[in-house]
Amino acid sequence: MRPFLAFKILLFTLIVPGTVLCYLPYWLLSDPNGDLQPANLAWALPAGVCLILGLAIYLHCAWAFAVEGLGTPAPIDPPKKLVVTGLYRRTRNPMFQGVLLLLLAECLLYTDPALLIYAGSIALLFHVAVVFHEEPGLASRFGVSYSTYCRKVPRWGFALQAFSSDSE
Fold first, then answer.
1. At what angle are helices 113-129 and 94-109 packed, to 10 degrees?
2. What gap in Å lies between CA 62 and CA 12, rounded to an integer?
C-alpha cells in the first residue's frame, strides 16, 4: 500500500468516523466542564468485545479498500475496483456495521438515552445513505458486476437477510 493512500485513509478515519465515534459522543456525554460521565463498568466486557470486533472490521475494510480497491473509504476518493472479497462476501456494508458496533460499545459503557438516540439516528442515516446514494452510485460505476454482487450478497449481512427485500 502506498504511503500517501495510507495517509488519506488515516485522515478520513480521523475526520469522519472520528467525529461519529469520538467527538459527537463526547459532546453528548460530557458536562459543561468537559468531564465525561462515569462509565458503567458492569458492561465493560461486552462493550470491549464490541469495541474489538468493530475496530477489527473497520480496519479490515479500510485495508481492503486500499489494497484491493485501490482507493479509500472517502467518497471523494473511492475505490477504483469493486471490493467483493473478505467481509464483503457476507455483507455489502461491513464498514458501516463496524462503526455501528463501536457505537454499540459506547452505548453499553455509557447508558445515556441521548447516546442511544444518537446511535439509532446514525444507523438510520447509514441505511438512507446506502439506499439512496451509495448503491445508485456503485451501480452506475460498476454496472453489471455490482448488480450481480447485490443479488448474491445482502445489504446488511446474513443475519438480516430474512428482512431484506428481493429488490436489493
1. 170
2. 10
